[in-house]
Amino acid sequence: MSEPARTVQTATDLKPFHEYASLAEGCTELGAFLGLDGPVSEDVFVGAMQDPVYARNLIISRSAPTFLKALLDKPPQREPVTERSEKTNIELLAKAAKSLWNWTRSGMETVSDEVYRRRLDRCAVCPHFATPPNRAIYNLGAAFAADTQERKICALCGCVTANKARMATENCPGDDPDRPGFTRWGEPKL
User: Mind giving me the DSSP string for the chain?
Assistant: First the structure.
Protein backbone atom coordinates (compact mmCIF):
# COMPACT_ATOMS: atom_id res chain seq x y z
CA MET A 1 0.00 0.00 0.00
CA SER A 2 1.39 3.38 -0.94
CA GLU A 3 1.65 6.30 1.46
CA PRO A 4 -0.85 9.11 1.01
CA ALA A 5 0.59 12.33 -0.38
CA ARG A 6 1.36 14.93 2.27
CA THR A 7 -0.67 18.13 2.26
CA VAL A 8 1.02 20.98 0.45
CA GLN A 9 -0.41 24.34 1.52
CA THR A 10 2.10 26.98 0.46
CA ALA A 11 4.98 27.32 -2.01
CA THR A 12 7.42 26.95 0.88
CA ASP A 13 5.96 23.47 1.52
CA LEU A 14 7.30 22.34 -1.87
CA LYS A 15 10.68 20.66 -1.51
CA PRO A 16 13.65 21.06 -3.86
CA PHE A 17 13.64 18.47 -6.67
CA HIS A 18 16.39 16.30 -5.20
CA GLU A 19 14.46 15.82 -1.93
CA TYR A 20 11.51 14.00 -3.50
CA ALA A 21 11.65 10.22 -3.27
CA SER A 22 10.49 9.97 -6.87
CA LEU A 23 9.39 12.04 -9.82
CA ALA A 24 5.85 10.73 -9.28
CA GLU A 25 5.85 12.06 -5.70
CA GLY A 26 6.85 15.53 -6.93
CA CYS A 27 4.13 15.49 -9.60
CA THR A 28 1.52 14.48 -7.02
CA GLU A 29 2.55 17.14 -4.51
CA LEU A 30 2.66 19.92 -7.09
CA GLY A 31 -0.78 18.85 -8.36
CA ALA A 32 -2.14 19.00 -4.79
CA PHE A 33 -0.53 22.40 -4.22
CA LEU A 34 -2.12 23.77 -7.39
CA GLY A 35 -5.53 22.43 -6.32
CA LEU A 36 -5.77 19.88 -9.13
CA ASP A 37 -7.63 16.57 -8.89
CA GLY A 38 -4.45 14.65 -9.69
CA PRO A 39 -0.75 14.99 -10.32
CA VAL A 40 0.76 17.37 -12.85
CA SER A 41 2.65 15.92 -15.82
CA GLU A 42 6.37 15.21 -15.47
CA ASP A 43 7.08 18.03 -17.95
CA VAL A 44 5.19 20.52 -15.76
CA PHE A 45 6.96 19.36 -12.58
CA VAL A 46 10.44 19.43 -14.14
CA GLY A 47 9.68 22.79 -15.75
CA ALA A 48 8.63 24.22 -12.38
CA MET A 49 11.76 22.89 -10.65
CA GLN A 50 14.11 24.20 -13.35
CA ASP A 51 12.43 27.48 -14.31
CA PRO A 52 11.65 29.88 -11.43
CA VAL A 53 9.57 32.17 -13.67
CA TYR A 54 7.36 29.26 -14.77
CA ALA A 55 7.04 28.11 -11.14
CA ARG A 56 6.05 31.63 -10.03
CA ASN A 57 3.47 31.87 -12.82
CA LEU A 58 1.96 28.53 -11.77
CA ILE A 59 1.68 29.74 -8.17
CA ILE A 60 0.13 33.06 -9.20
CA SER A 61 -2.37 31.25 -11.46
CA ARG A 62 -3.65 28.87 -8.75
CA SER A 63 -6.83 30.91 -8.44
CA ALA A 64 -7.19 31.61 -12.18
CA PRO A 65 -8.16 28.27 -13.82
CA THR A 66 -7.95 29.56 -17.39
CA PHE A 67 -4.40 30.83 -16.96
CA LEU A 68 -3.40 27.76 -14.96
CA LYS A 69 -4.68 25.45 -17.72
CA ALA A 70 -2.70 27.39 -20.33
CA LEU A 71 0.48 27.03 -18.25
CA LEU A 72 -0.14 23.33 -17.63
CA ASP A 73 -0.76 22.72 -21.34
CA LYS A 74 2.49 24.43 -22.38
CA PRO A 75 5.31 23.72 -19.91
CA PRO A 76 8.75 25.06 -20.85
CA GLN A 77 10.96 22.77 -22.92
CA ARG A 78 13.74 21.61 -20.64
CA GLU A 79 16.23 18.82 -20.60
CA PRO A 80 14.68 15.63 -19.28
CA VAL A 81 15.50 14.83 -15.67
CA THR A 82 15.53 11.21 -14.70
CA GLU A 83 14.96 9.99 -11.22
CA ARG A 84 18.03 10.18 -9.09
CA SER A 85 19.81 6.86 -9.08
CA GLU A 86 22.85 6.48 -6.92
CA LYS A 87 25.83 4.77 -8.43
CA THR A 88 27.39 1.80 -6.68
CA ASN A 89 30.73 2.18 -4.92
CA ILE A 90 32.36 0.05 -7.66
CA GLU A 91 30.91 2.32 -10.41
CA LEU A 92 32.10 5.43 -8.56
CA LEU A 93 35.59 3.99 -8.01
CA ALA A 94 35.85 2.91 -11.66
CA LYS A 95 34.76 6.37 -12.83
CA ALA A 96 37.21 8.05 -10.46
CA ALA A 97 40.04 5.79 -11.62
CA LYS A 98 39.30 6.55 -15.29
CA SER A 99 39.14 10.31 -14.59
CA LEU A 100 42.40 10.21 -12.67
CA TRP A 101 44.06 8.18 -15.43
CA ASN A 102 42.97 10.69 -18.11
CA TRP A 103 44.04 13.59 -15.91
CA THR A 104 47.44 12.01 -15.25
CA ARG A 105 47.96 11.38 -18.98
CA SER A 106 47.29 15.10 -19.60
CA GLY A 107 50.11 16.04 -17.22
CA MET A 108 47.62 16.79 -14.42
CA GLU A 109 46.51 19.92 -16.21
CA THR A 110 44.08 22.10 -14.29
CA VAL A 111 41.85 24.90 -15.50
CA SER A 112 42.51 28.56 -14.64
CA ASP A 113 41.03 29.97 -11.45
CA GLU A 114 38.57 31.95 -13.58
CA VAL A 115 37.29 28.84 -15.40
CA TYR A 116 37.19 26.89 -12.13
CA ARG A 117 35.11 29.60 -10.43
CA ARG A 118 32.74 29.82 -13.44
CA ARG A 119 32.26 26.05 -13.43
CA LEU A 120 31.54 25.96 -9.69
CA ASP A 121 29.14 28.92 -9.96
CA ARG A 122 27.19 27.04 -12.63
CA CYS A 123 27.19 23.86 -10.54
CA ALA A 124 25.82 25.81 -7.56
CA VAL A 125 22.63 26.73 -9.47
CA CYS A 126 22.19 23.37 -11.20
CA PRO A 127 19.23 21.19 -10.13
CA HIS A 128 21.63 18.22 -10.04
CA PHE A 129 23.99 19.83 -7.46
CA ALA A 130 23.41 17.73 -4.36
CA THR A 131 24.57 16.84 -0.91
CA PRO A 132 26.22 13.44 -1.10
CA PRO A 133 24.50 10.49 0.53
CA ASN A 134 25.96 9.25 3.80
CA ARG A 135 28.20 6.58 2.30
CA ALA A 136 31.76 5.59 3.13
CA ILE A 137 33.10 6.55 -0.29
CA TYR A 138 31.80 10.12 0.04
CA ASN A 139 32.80 10.38 3.70
CA LEU A 140 36.37 9.49 2.70
CA GLY A 141 36.33 12.19 0.03
CA ALA A 142 34.93 14.70 2.53
CA ALA A 143 38.02 14.23 4.69
CA PHE A 144 40.04 15.96 1.93
CA ALA A 145 37.56 18.79 1.28
CA ALA A 146 38.18 22.18 2.86
CA ASP A 147 34.55 23.26 3.23
CA THR A 148 30.98 21.99 2.84
CA GLN A 149 30.51 23.43 -0.68
CA GLU A 150 33.50 21.40 -1.83
CA ARG A 151 31.81 18.20 -0.65
CA LYS A 152 28.74 18.53 -2.89
CA ILE A 153 28.30 16.15 -5.80
CA CYS A 154 26.75 16.05 -9.23
CA ALA A 155 23.72 13.75 -9.03
CA LEU A 156 24.11 12.94 -12.74
CA CYS A 157 27.57 11.42 -12.55
CA GLY A 158 28.27 11.06 -8.82
CA CYS A 159 31.47 13.13 -8.95
CA VAL A 160 32.54 15.61 -6.28
CA THR A 161 31.98 18.83 -8.23
CA ALA A 162 34.90 20.79 -6.77
CA ASN A 163 37.34 18.09 -7.90
CA LYS A 164 35.73 17.57 -11.30
CA ALA A 165 35.57 21.31 -12.04
CA ARG A 166 39.31 21.75 -11.39
CA MET A 167 40.45 19.10 -13.91
CA ALA A 168 40.99 20.27 -17.49
CA THR A 169 40.13 16.79 -18.79
CA GLU A 170 36.66 16.72 -17.24
CA ASN A 171 33.32 17.87 -18.67
CA CYS A 172 29.90 18.57 -17.21
CA PRO A 173 27.52 15.66 -17.95
CA GLY A 174 24.43 17.91 -18.12
CA ASP A 175 23.08 19.60 -21.23
CA ASP A 176 22.55 23.36 -21.09
CA PRO A 177 18.75 23.76 -21.32
CA ASP A 178 19.10 27.06 -23.19
CA ARG A 179 22.00 26.26 -25.55
CA PRO A 180 21.88 22.96 -27.45
CA GLY A 181 25.33 21.47 -27.93
CA PHE A 182 26.70 23.01 -24.72
CA THR A 183 27.04 21.70 -21.18
CA ARG A 184 25.70 23.38 -18.08
CA TRP A 185 29.25 24.74 -17.61
CA GLY A 186 28.70 26.72 -20.84
CA GLU A 187 31.32 24.67 -22.67
CA PRO A 188 30.86 22.78 -25.94
CA LYS A 189 29.61 19.22 -25.49
CA LEU A 190 32.29 16.69 -26.41
Answer: -PPPPPP--SGGGSPPGGGSS-HHHHHHHHHHHTT-SSPPPHHHHHHHHH-HHHHHHHHHGGG-HHHHHHHHHSPPP----PPP-PPPHHHHHHHHHHHHHHHHHTTS-B--HHHHHHHHHHHHT-TTEEPPPS-HHHHHHHTT-SSGGGG-EETTT--BHHHHHHBTT----SBPTTSTTBBTTSSB--
Q: Are residues 137 and 161 in the same domain?
A: yes
Q: What is the pLDDT along the chain (190 residues), one digit of tens a residue?
A: 444 444 444 545 566 655 666 778 888 888 888 889 999 998 888 788 777 788 888 888 888 999 999 999 998 876 544 444 567 767 777 777 788 787 878 888 999 999 999 999 999 899 988 888 877 777 766 555 555 556 788 888 888 888 889 999 999 999 988 888 999 999 998 7
> How many domains, the chain?
2
Q: Is the residue at 121 inside a domain?
A: yes
- Let me know whether 124 and 67 are in one domain: no
- Domain residues for 142? 89-166
